[in-house]
Amino acid sequence: MLLFYTFNKYVHNLKLNMKFKVTSRQFLPLKTILPIIILVISTLIACSSSSDSNSKNIIPESSGRSVYAVGKLNNQAIFWKNAIPTALSGDDLRTGYAIFVSGNDVYIVGRELNSFGRFQAKIWKNNIGSFLSANGNNDSTATSIYVSGPNVYVVGKEDGVAKIWINNVGIVLGNTILQSGANSVFVSGSDYYVAGYEQRDVNWLYPMDAVLWKNGVKTILQSNGENSNASAVCVLGNDVYVCGDCDNQVNTKAVMWKNNIKYNLTDESYYNARATSMFISGSDVYISGFAGDADNYTAKFWKNSIANDLTDGSLFASANGIFVAGSDVYVSGYYDDFKPVIWKNSIKFNLTSVNETGSINSIFVK
Question: How is the chain split into domains, by residue range?
Answer without folding.
Answer: 2-53, 115-357
